Amino acid sequence: ATVSEPAQRCCTENIQPFLASILEELMGPVSSGFTEVRSLFDKEVNEIIQDFQKTNDITKLKENVDQLMNLPFNSVKMEPCYLKVNLLQELLQDLKSRFKVYHIDFVIQRTQNFMQELMENAVYTFEQLFSPSRHADSAKVATTIEKVKLRVLK
C-alpha cells in the first residue's frame, strides 16, 4: 500500500507518455525483420516453381520442397532476417539509459526466435497444403505451388 501510489504516479508521469513512441521506434526493425522472412519464403518458393518449370522432374520437386522444410534452420539463409532485428541493439541502448531496460540481448534473441517460428509455420503450412497436389498433372503443379504460396503469404 505504501509503494503502490508512488509507483503508479512514477509510471504515469515518467513512462506511460513515452510508451507509444517507444513502441513505434522498436517496431521499425521488428517489422523489417518479419518482412524479410516473408520475402525469403516468397523467393525460395519462386525458385522451386522456376526449377520445376525447367525440369518437370517430380523427384527434384520433392527434394526442393524437403529443402524448403529446412529453411527455418538454415542459418545462412535466415541471417538477413536476423540482421534486420539487430538494429534493436542501438535503439534499446537509449532505452536502457532512460528507463533502465536490461536484457537487451534477450529481447533481440526472442524476436529472432519468433521469426524462425514464423518461417517454420509458413513452410509447414505450405507442405501441408501442397502435399495432396504433389502427384497431380505436371502441367498444373507450378500453378498449384503458386496458389499455395499465395495462400500461405496471406
From TrEMBL:
Matching entries from Pfam families are given as: Niban2
InterPro entries, A to Z: Niban-like, Niban_1/2/3_dom
Look up the domain of life of the source. Answer: Eukaryota
Q: Where is the Niban 1/2/3 domain?
A: 10-154
Q: What family is reported?
A: Belongs to the Niban family.
Protein name in UniProt: NIBAN protein
Q: Please report the organism this UniProt entry assigns to the protein.
A: Sula dactylatra
